[in-house]
Amino acid sequence: MKKLSTFMAVALAFGGTSLIKSEVAFAQATTVGQLRGVVRDTGAKEPAVGATVVATSPALQGEQVVITDETGQYFVTSLPPGMYTLTVYYNDATYSRGNVLVQVGKEVVINISVNSVTNAGRPKGEVIEIKGSAPIVDQGSTKTGLTLTSDYTNNVPTGRTFGATMGAAAGSQGDQYGISFGGATSVENTYVVEGINTTDTAYGLLSSNLPNEFINETEVITGGYNAEYGRATGGIVNVVTKSGSNEFHGSVFGTFSPSSFTAQAKTVQTEGGSVDNQLNAGNIWDIGAEVGGPIIKDKLWFHVGFDPSVVNATNTRLVQSQVDANQDGVADIDPATGLTKHELVSKSQVDGSAKTYYYTAKINGAIDQNNQFQISAFGNPRTNHRPYTGSGSQNTTSALTDDSLNQDSGAQDVSAKWTSKLNGGKTELDAVVGYHHAYSNTTSATDAGNKSFVYYRYERSLQDFADIEGPGISAKCTDGGAGDLYPLIRNCPVTNYQESGLGLLENRSNDRLTGALSITQRLKLAGYHVFKGGIDYEGSTYDTTQNYSGGIGSFYRARSGTWRFQNFYNIERNLTAAEVANPSSVTLANDETLCSSGRALCKQSPTLARSASDGSLGAFIQDSWQIAPNFTLNAGIRFEHQTAGIPKEVQGTVTPQNETVGSTGFTLNNWAPRIGFVWDPSQEGKAKIFAHWGRFYENIPMDLNIRSLGGEIDNIANLNAKHLVNGQAGYNPSCAVDHAMGTDVGSTLKNCTDFAQASIFGSGVEYVTPGIQGQYSQEAIFGAEYEVLPDTKVGLTYTHRTLPVVVEDIFLANGDYGITNPSENFDAEADKLSAKAKTEQMSTDANVVAQGNLDASRAAGMYRIKQYDAPSRNYDSLAFNITQRPTKNSLILASYTYSKEQGNFPGLFSTETGQLDPNITSQFDLPALLANRYGALGLDRPHNVKIDGFYRFDLKQAGLITIGTSLRAQSGIAHNVLGADIVYGPGESYLLQRGSAPRSPTTGQADFHLSYGRRLDKTKTLEVFGDVFNISDAQQESATDENYTTDSANPIVGGDMNDLKHVKAISADTSTETAHTPVLNPNFGHTTSYQQAPRSFRFGVRLTF
Amino acid sequence: MFVYLPLRWKWVGAVATSALALTACTRPDEYSDLRPDGPPEVLTVSVNALDTRPAFFGVGQALEQATYCKTIGPNDQGIGDPKRPGEVNLVDITQLVYCPADLTMGVPEITSAMPEAWYVRIEFDELLDPAIEDLVADVDPTGVPTGTYTGTLAKTQPVTLKCESSTGSGLVDVPYDGYYSPSGNLISYPLGPSLVIIPTDASTIATNSECFVSLKDKIHDKDGNEVPADQRGTAAIPYRFKTAPIQITAISPKDSATNSLAPAAAGVDLTFNASISATDFTATSLNFTPTVANVGASESAPNEYFIYGDFPAAAGPFTFTIPQGTVFHDQCGHATTFGAATAANQTLTRFSTKAIALTGLAPAAEPGTKVALTFNQYMNDATLAATEYTITPALANARVEVSGLDQTKLLIAGDYALGTTYTFTLPTSATIDDCPGAEGYFAGDPTVCVKSATFSSPSEQTVTFTTASAIALKSVTPADNATVTSGRISLTFNQEMDPATFDASDYTITPPVTLTARNAGVFAYANGAAGSYETLQLSAAAGSFVNGTTYTFTLKGTASLADKLGNVYSPGTDKVIHFTYTVPAATPPHVCL
C-alpha cells in the first residue's frame, strides 16, 4: 500500500496538476475526425445564424468553410487529424479560436460565443481572439479506448511501433499472439491502417506494423462502437499515418539499445531437466527519416519515410547436471531458490538477427475544397535469421540451437481514398480501395531441414545423446559405471529431447483486396441526425505450402518404446463399394492407409499446398440522433456476409462420401444491431452518463479454409507398437530403433512395418452443418465521465461481454468432423436431413442409398450437437480512468481495471496449449475434452493498473527537459492441472477444474524516459533522449508448467487434489487405462516464462524540422 | 517494483467484486459434469469383450462393453439423459452405442468377455471416497521408487465376484484385485468414476462360463453416502456376464481372392481368444484345398498358431478352412465346437503363392562376413553348386550354408581373409532348386526337399565388399548387472572365431566356474555342413552356476583369441560384466476354479 502511494505521487508529479484526456469519440470515417458546435451571439442572446465558420490547419489542404444554420449549429466533417483554427465571420466582426485538436474517429464540439453588440464598430480586419479549452467529455459517442499521438510515443517510454503501444488501453493485456482487449483473445482484433483492413487473413494476427515516427494517430477502440465498425469481437485499432503539409516538415531519428546495457534474462530452470535456454537481447537499433511537404501548395502534398530496424538476439543454451552430494538418491535442492541444484556442464550461444525495413509513402490531393483524395503505400518487409530452439507446441528440448531458420516475412499495403462533400457539406461521400499483401516464408539454414522431426517424450539421460551434444558432457552426465559422479540419480535428465529435424515449415501469402463506400447525411428532424450508411467488400486469399522437414512427418518415442508418427495424408482414391464393404481386401503399401472412415485410400504426403479465397460483404446504416443538446442516441445495424471459399486444389473433386466439392464451404449472414445513448446531466458538457449494447460478429480467419475445407488429413500412427524383438516373427529392425551413436532414427523409421493406425484427423472437406450461425460476442457498457479539471476527466466504465455462439469443429459423425455451433440446437435441420436420408435410403440406386446413409449419419450427429457443453466466455470489468488530453507540457493516461473472466472457451486460440487454429481448435473436438474446462480463463487477470505520462520543463534558452514514465501492474493468471489426452496430446486433458492451481503472482514494471531538447530555430528541434525499461529489472513469473503429467489421463470431473492422487494413466501402446498413476512432471507448477523483459536502456536522437 | 500491493488490492478488489457480483454469471451445469447429489448410483457395468463392430479400426481387439445399463430413476432427466453413457466416441474416433439413449432400455448381457483377459468396470455417477483404493509405490528393478503408484483393491475388496466353476461345483468366488479410477475410461463417457475389478487370473475361469459381480456396503461417495442397496447387483438386478466360447479373433491373411504370399511365408496364422490344447490340431481340423503336404501347427505366440505346410511356389489358390464340427478345448477342458467355416468368423481364408524370387543379396549379412542370398522361398542349399557362382579373389574352403534356421537365406561361407575386397557374382541363368518342405528339414530328413520349382537368375547379380581389417569384439551378453536364467556368456566378434583358442588364461570369473567355448552357430545339418560362427558361447557344466549368486566375468585385456585363419585378437583392456544367475522358475500347473 505504501508503495502504491509513492508510485501515485510520482505519477502525479509527472503530470502536474492538469490531468487530461483525449477521448472525444464519435463514429465517423476511420481516417478523419470532425468538428461541430454552436455559434451563439451572446450580445443578442440568440444563435448566430448565418455565421461563416472557416477551419484551417497545417494538416488540411486549403480550408473548410461552412455556414451556421438557424440554430447556430455548424458541422465541419472529414478533417485530417491535427491542430485546427476556427475563424468565424459574423456581422462584420472576425473571431478566431485556436488550439482545436481534431483526432481520428472523434468529433470535437467547439461552441463559440460571439457578441454582435460589444464588437460592433470594430475596425475591419481586426481579429478577436477567443480563448478556451475544448470539452474533453465527448457527448456524442459511447466508444471506449484511447487515442495515441506523437505526444505519447515521443515522451512516454514505449515500444517503437504502433503495435507495441496498444497496450496502454485500460484493461488490455498481452497474450501469446498480441494485445488482448476486453477479455477477447488478441486475434479477435481488427487492425485498420489508412482506412483498410490489414489484419492477417489466416489467423487474425497483427500483420502491417509501422514505427511511431510514421504515425499521425493510433486510435484504440476497445468497445462501444457503432455499426460502421465490424468484423471483430475484440478491439479495433485504427491507424493513420502522417501526411504532408504546405511546409516541409519531418524528422531524422535513431535509437540504439546496447546489449551491454541490457540486464541478463533470467534463465527458466526446468525441474527434472538439464537443458535450459536463455534468450538475451543483443544490440537493437534503427535509424530513419520521414519528411513531408508540398508538391503543389494546398493542392498536392507528399510524405515519405524509411526506417531500417535491426534486432539482434543471443540464445544461450545451458547444459547443467544435477547434484547428489550426500548420495541419498535425491537430487540436491538449492536452498536459495528452492529448485534443484545444478552444475554447469556446457554453454553455447547462437545469435539471431532480424532486419525490418519500414517504409511509407503518401500523397494527399485536393481537387477543390469538396473533393479530396489520398494515395498511400507502406510496408514492413523483414528478414529474420534466428536460432531454432525446438517446436513450441511440443515444448521440446532441442539439440538444434546451432541450427538456424531463415524467415522472410512482412506486409506491403497500398490504399487510396476519395472524399467528396455535396449539398453544402451536408452530404459526404467516402470511398476507399486498398490491397494488403502479407507473406511469411520459413526455411532451414542447415541440414536440419532435410531430416525428420524426432523427439523423445519421456525422461532420458542426456548422455544417451552424447554424439549430438558432444563428448564434453560425459564428464558430468555419465550414468552408471565408472565416471558416474552421482550413481543414485540420473545426472542429466532430459525430457522431450529433440534429436533432429524442424517439423512443419510453411511458406504462405495472405492478401486482401478492400473496397468501401460510405455516405454521410446530416439532417435536422426532431433534433440533429447524422445518418451514415455504407457498404464494403473484402476479398481475401490464403496461399500456403506446408512441408515437413526431411520429407516426412514427425516422430516421437513414448516411454514404452512405441513411436508415434504424424504426417499429412492425401486421398489417393476413393474405395469402391465392394472395397468399403470388405476393407481387408484392399492391399496397402506401407505409406498407405484407409482413411475417411474406410471410404478412401490415403497415401503419405510430405506437403500440403492449398490456395483459398474468401469474400466478405459488409453493409451498415446508423444514426447519431442528437435529441436534445445534452442527449444523443446512437443506433445502427450492420450486416455482414461471409463466403468461405474451398481451396481450388480440391474444388471439383469427388469426396469419399461421393459428393462433388463445390467452391464454397459455407456462407454466413450476420446481423449486428448496436444501440447506445449519451446523456449529459451537467448540461454543460462536463459530464456524461452513457450506455451501449451491441452484437459483434467475427470474420472467420482463413486457417479454417485451408485446414478444414482444404481436405487436410493428418495421420497419427503407432510404430513398433508390438515391441517385437529380434527373432520374433514379424520383427523389423527399422521399428525397434532408439537413438544410438550416429543413427538417423527418422530415416530408419520410414521403413518400419509394425504400423498401427492410431487416429486420422480429417476426412476430406469437412461437413458444415446447415443453419450454422456466425460467431459473435455481445457487449453491454455502462459508464460515466466527469471533467474534474480543464482537459482532464475521470471515468468509470462497466463492461459485460459474453460469447453466446461460437463456431468450432466437432466430432460429428462416424469418423468425420464437422463445423458447427457447439451446444446449439440443430434438431430442425437434423429433422430435414433425416427425412431426406430416409427417402434416399429407399432408392434402388446404390449411390443414392450411400448418400442416404451418409445423411442419416450426419443427422444423427447433428442431434447430438446440443449435448455439447455450451461454450462460454463471460467477461465483466469495472474500469476507472483518469485521462488528460495531451498538452505541450504534459499528458497522463491512467487506469485501474478490475475484471473477471470465466468460461470454458478462451477464444480463437487455446490459451493453455497455444493452439492457434481459429474456429477449429481441438477444444470442442470430442465431448470428452470438455470435462472440467469451465473456470477462470487464461486471460482472467483481476487487477490491472496502467499509468503513463510525461511532464516537460521548458527552460527557455537552456532547452527542454522532458520526463516520462510508464507504470504497469497486473494480477497473474490462474493455472491449471493438465494431463495429456490420448489422442490430442499434452495439455488437452483438464485433470481438475480449470483454474484449480494457484495463480501466478502479481507483476509490475516501471519504465522511465528522460530527454533534453534544444530549439535550433523556430522550426528545428534537436532532442536526445534515453529510456530505461523495467528499471528494477523485475522478472516475475507469468506462466508455469501446467502439465501435471505428460502421460495420458482423463479428467476427474469435479475432483480435487485428493482425487488427483488416484488418477490413472492411459497406456500409450494400447490406449486403455492402466492401474498405475501417471509419471509426474517434475516441472509441474514451476515457472516457464517471465512477464517482463530484463532491464534495458534505449538511447536516441531526434531532429525535428 | 510495483508488485506487492496486497492491502490495496484486497479492498479495491472487494469493492470491485461486489459490483461485479451483481452481473457476473454463476457456473452453469454442463453436460460433462457429474451428478454429485444423492447417493452414488451405478450407471453401467461393463466387461472387456471382443470388439465385433464392423468398424474400420480395432477389429479383433477387445473393447469395454456394457453388460448392464441403469434404467430411468428419480434423478434421471429422461430420454437422452447425458449422465448415462449413450453413443460414445472412442479413442480411435469411431463410435459405439454404449447404452441406449432411451433410459427405459437396458442392454443384453455380454456373453463374449475375453476368456483370459476379462475384467469388470463398475461406473458411478459421482466421485467415490478414494479411500476405497490403496496406492502402492512402484519400484524399478533395483527397488528404487519410480514415483508412480499402483492402485489396488486387495485390502478393501469392495465387491463379490463369482463365476461358474469348471468342475461343476456351481458358483465359486474368484480372487480379484483392481483399482479405483476417479476419471474413468473414455469408453464410459461421460467420465464416470469407476471401480475396475480384475480377476487375479482370468484364465482360471473356463470359456463360456457365467459370472456375477455384486457390490458390498463399503462403497461410499465423498459425503459418506452408500450405493443404494438395490443397485449393488442383487438377484433382481444382477450384474452378470459370460466368458466367450473359444473363438478365432484374427486370421492372417484375411480372406481375399487376391492374396498372394511368398511361398516361404505361405500358411495361415490363427489367433484364438484363449489358450487351446495343441492336440486339437489334427489332420482333419486343418484343411487346405488343394491338399498340401506336411500340414501342421506351431505356436508362434501365446494363443497364436501358424498353420504351415509344403507350399509350392507359383501355386494356388489354396483355401484354408476349419471344418464344421472341429472341437477345441480350453485349459480347463471346456470344449467349443466350431460351426460352418466362413470368412466372417475367421475360419476360412484363401491365398496363392508367388514365383521364386531373389529378394536380397547382401555382402555382410549376419553372421559375419558372408555373402547372403535371400529368397522368398525355402531353398535347397545343396543345389547351389560352385559352378553357379563366382567369388574373387578365390575364397578358401568356399561352401554353401543356410543361415541358422532360415532356409530362405543361403550363405557363401569360407575362409574370408581380413581386410580383403571380394566380388561375388551370381550370373544370369544360375539355377537353384527350392525346398518347399524346409520347415521339417532340420529334423534330419533330406527327402523333405522335394522341389516344386527351380530358380533361374534373370540377370547377373554382383556385390563387392571389403572384410574388416581387424578382429573386434562387438558385444557381450549378458548385459552388465543383468539377471539371467542361462549360465552362458556370449562373446560376439566381427569374424569367425576359433573356440579352441579360448582357455582359462583368457578370463576370470568369480566365484570361479570353469567355462568352455564353442561356436554358437554350430548345427548338425543334414547335409553335413559344419557351421562356424563369430559368436563364442562360453558355457559351464550343468550345476556350475549357483542360484542367486552374482558373478563377475572378466575377459582379460591380455586374452589372446584367434580366428580360424589364425588372426589374433587381444582386447588390451579388461572387459568386465556382472550378472546374477537364477534358476528358471518352474511353470506351475494351470489351475481352474
Give a short summary of the structure.
The complex is a heterodimer of chains A (1105) and B (593). Chain A is mainly β and 1105 residues long.
Q: If you had to describe this structure to a student in words, what would you say it looks like?
A:
The complex is a heterodimer of chains A (1105) and B (593). Chain A is mainly β. Helix content of chain A is 7%, strand content 48%. Chain A has a 24-stranded antiparallel sheet that branches. In chain A, strands 24, 27, 28, 31, 32, 33, 34, 39 and 40 form a 9-stranded mixed sheet that branches. With 593 residues, chain B is mostly beta strands. Helices cover 3% and strands 37% of the residues of chain B. Chain B has a 5-stranded antiparallel sheet, with no helix packed on it. In chain B, strand 8 (159-164) and strand 9 (171-173) form a beta hairpin. Chain B is globular and about 90 Å long. The chains are: A mainly beta (1105), B mainly beta (593). The interface between A and B is large, with 96 and 73 residues.
List the helices and strands and how they pair.
The complex is a heterodimer of chains A (1105) and B (593).
Chain A: H1 2-15, E1 33-41, E2 46-47, E3 52-56, E4 64-67, E5 73-79, E6 82-90, E7 93-102, E8 107-109, E9 112-114, E10 127-130, E11 144-149, H2 150-155, E12 173-175, E13 178-180, E14 190-193, E15 196-197, E16 215-223, E17 236-241, E18 249-257, E19 275-296, E20 300-322, E21 342-368, E22 371-379, E23 382-387, E24 397-398, E25 404-422, E26 427-444, E27 454-461, H3 466-469, H4 474-477, E28 493-500, E29 504-524, E30 528-548, E31 554-557, E32 563-574, H5 577-581, E33 592-595, E34 600-605, E35 607-628, E36 631-645, E37 664-679, E38 687-697, H6 703-707, E39 713-719, H7 745-749, E40 755-761, E41 767-768, E42 776-789, E43 792-805, E44 808-813, E45 816-820, H8 827-841, H9 846-864, E46 873-884, E47 890-903, E48 935-936, E49 943-954, E50 960-970, E51 978-981, E52 985-990, E53 1003-1015, E54 1021-1029, E55 1037-1040, E56 1043-1048, H10 1057-1060, E57 1087-1090, E58 1096-1104
Parallel strand pairs in A: 1-8, 1-9, 7-10, 14-17, 24-28, 27-31, 41-45, 51-56
Antiparallel strand pairs in A: 1-2, 1-5, 3-4, 3-6, 6-7, 11-16, 12-13, 14-15, 16-17, 18-19, 18-58, 19-20, 20-21, 21-22, 21-23, 22-25, 23-25, 25-26, 26-29, 27-28, 29-30, 30-35, 31-32, 32-34, 32-39, 33-34, 35-36, 36-37, 37-38, 38-42, 39-40, 42-43, 43-46, 44-45, 46-47, 47-48, 47-49, 49-50, 50-53, 51-52, ...
Chain B: H1 6-21, E1 42-50, E2 62-69, E3 87-89, E4 95-97, E5 120-124, E6 134-139, E7 145-152, E8 159-164, E9 171-173, E10 176-181, E11 194-199, E12 210-215, E13 239-242, E14 248-252, E15 260-261, E16 268-272, E17 287-289, E18 293-301, E19 304-310, E20 318-321, E21 327-329, E22 335-337, E23 348-353, E24 358-365, E25 370-375, E26 390-392, E27 396-403, E28 406-415, E29 421-426, E30 431-433, E31 454-456, E32 461-466, E33 473-477, E34 482-484, E35 488-493, E36 507-510, E37 516-519, E38 535-539, E39 549-555, E40 561-562, E41 568-569, E42 575-581
Parallel strand pairs in B: 15-23, 34-42
Antiparallel strand pairs in B: 1-2, 1-5, 3-4, 5-11, 6-7, 8-9, 8-12, 10-11, 12-13, 14-16, 16-19, 17-20, 18-19, 20-23, 21-22, 24-25, 25-28, 26-29, 27-28, 29-32, 30-31, 33-35, 35-38, 36-39, 37-38, 39-42, 40-41
